[in-house]
Design a protein that fits this description.
This protein is mainly alpha-helical. Helix content is 90%, strand content 0%.
Length: 124
């Protein structure tokens, strides 16, 4: 693994960690969502500092270049993150649908009550 690639991994990881921590401090990101990204960036920094680990794992798996191993690993982790985000979005869409239906029922009930009150007042 070239020194330039190692330095880029470390710089990218540190920069991304700083960005994530700033987003947490300004309450623009929840900690539970940020944990995955923090672990991911820490892993990239470790590979940048200790490239022997990437070389060993890529050799065991049969990938010719440790850089290719890093790229495949990053793609794999990002696919997992996207899948988890898709699950969260689906869950939130269902919750929004349920809340919308409940709100419509409450509004309909209030409308019926106000019509009922108006008819009671006119009857008197």
């Amino acid at each position: 693994m070239s020194i330039v690639f190692r330095v880029l991994l470390i710089l990218f990881s540190v920069g991304a960690l700083a960005f994530i921590l700033r987003k947490i401090r300004t309450s623009q990101m929840q900690i539970d969502s940020a944990v995955v990204w923090i672990i991911f960036m820490f892993g990239l920094a470790v590979i940048g500092v200790f490239p022997e680990a990437a070389m060993y794992i890529s050799g065991v798996i049969g990938i010719m270049s440790p850089a290719n191993f890093v790229f495949v690993g990053v793609i794999f982790v990002l696919l997992i993150i996207v899948f988890n985000l898709s699950l969260k979005v689906s869950k939130q869409q269902y919750q929004i649908q349920q809340l919308t239906q409940m709100l419509a029922m409450v509004e309909k009930q209030k409308e019926s009550e106000s019509v009922q009150e108006a008819s009671n007042i006119s009857d008197e």
